[in-house]
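Work package 3, deliverable 3.1, input record:
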Amino acid sequence: MLAIIGGSGLSQLANLIITHREVVRTPYGEPSCPLTFGNVCGTPVVFLARHGHGHTLAPHEVNYRANIWALKHKGALAVIAVASVGSIRADLMPGDLVVPHQIIDYSWGRRSTFFEGEGCPVRHIDFTDPYDEELRQRIIGAAEVAGIPLKAGAVYACTQGPRLETAAEINRIERDGGDVVGMTGMPEALLAREQELPYAAINVVANYAAGRADSAHGISFDAILGELGAPMARVRTLLETVA
Ligand code: HPA
């Protein structure tokens, strides 16, 4: 079964034939919302809206551990995470789809490991390549088959939010090697790795990052969300082809 975590602009999967919903309890608290089970083009899929129904959870409020634990323990074999991002690289434009290959984590204060607490052995997980390469290639190949333009490879920078970045922060992230910036990629990717769940992301460029191009005079996140309809329709088609 394939798990899909939907972010801003993808709180439902219109092409999911739903069989049932389930409220899952976990040792780490409550997931963002009940899991939705069904199939996409005959492939079993479980869907989870990262920010909850009605987009009520900010990126730092998401219970990433509960989400990943619930998906794993309900039978997910791989996770595709969909998330909107701001673009730092000039050739990544609003509306573009990107499959990142690396992560820099600037988030802080999030519960970011399953390996902590009394009686739990210390583990140092290998995270050299944070995304599962086979799953990345499956997505990239599906985009080719479906004729959906997609940029394969980008360094994803995860900021804390919920505020957007300053122009200087974006300059720093660029110097660090970041290509796109979002708020939810971590610790989600790491927790999936800890649960031995292959994990890859589809990033939808929603805007130019702070201080870049047409965002030089500020970014309205509501305006950003309004622009996501068409690219998210392409993401749905892409997910059908992956499934
Ligand atoms: N910064 C951080 N997260 C985002 C952005 C951004 O500009 N756009 C969409 N998610």
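Residues 84-86, 159, 164-165, 181-183, 206-207, 209, 224 surround hypoxanthine (CB under 6 Å).
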